[in-house]
Amino acid sequence: MAMAPIVRMEEITRIYQMGPTQVEALKGIDLSIDEGEYVAIMGPSGSGKSTLLSLVGCLDRPTSGRYFLAGQEVSTLSDDDLARIRNRRLGFVFQSFHLLPRMSALRNVEQPLIYARVPPAERKRRATEALERVNLSHRLHHAPNELSGGERQRVAIARALVNEPALLLADEPTGNLDTATGEEILRLFDQLHQRGTTILLITHDPDVAQKAQRVLRIRDGILVGSDDPEGGS
Ligand SMILES: Nc1ncnc2c1ncn2[C@@H]1O[C@H](COP(=O)(O)OP(=O)(O)O)[C@@H](O)[C@H]1O
Ligand SMILES: [Mg+2]
After folding, report:
1. Residue of the nearest CA to atom 7 in ligand 1?
2. Mean pLDDT of 180-188
3. How far is CA 86 from CA 59, 89, 122, 166, 218, in A?
């Protein structure tokens, strides 16, 4: 029997109320992502990419439609339940890294485990392992300002992976990096995908998107087709 997809969205809309006017940022999104897939969503500025990623990432709720994450309907959950699901099931990587400045790489990666109340010794062991997976074993005790941009993003990726998330979400993960460093980060995503991590990446950059296994395009809040020969979604 086929497994339930990690992500299943049905007719998702998101309307922002701006005083008297409404901004229809998403106009009926159907999206399905299977375990182990590496999907990129590409679209121009203002097309709804970040709005969609916030919804997939349980940082926001849809105006209408249904969203199932790993089989569980999450569109109607409370803030507390959504926070718990984010911590247990999802890993986030952002353009601007979002690391805690005065803490070592190791402490940064331990943060999601502190929130999940994992005991200190296990926390340290798992954070060290996550940093090994992104080839940073030699930088455990460096603070963000003692690391290069690419190393900072690798710390952020280790932090995103430390809870063994069902899905890794990345919003323009190479946007603040030079081309060579960006390519190094994309090679790391490729490695993680090959080892079984499910990845959803959003970007405006076709060169970044084409590294994924399946590319979807978004325009004016509508997903407009896939280059997947099997017609994935
Ligand atoms: N918090 C918000 N309030 C009102 N409008 C918003 C908000 N966030 C985004 N929008 C609008 O929704 C549309 C999609 O935005 P966004 O998802 O940020 O696009 P992208 O990430 O592709 O640049 C844009 O028209 C944007 O102006
Ligand atoms: Mg955006």
Report:
1. 16
2. 94
3. 8, 6, 21, 10, 24
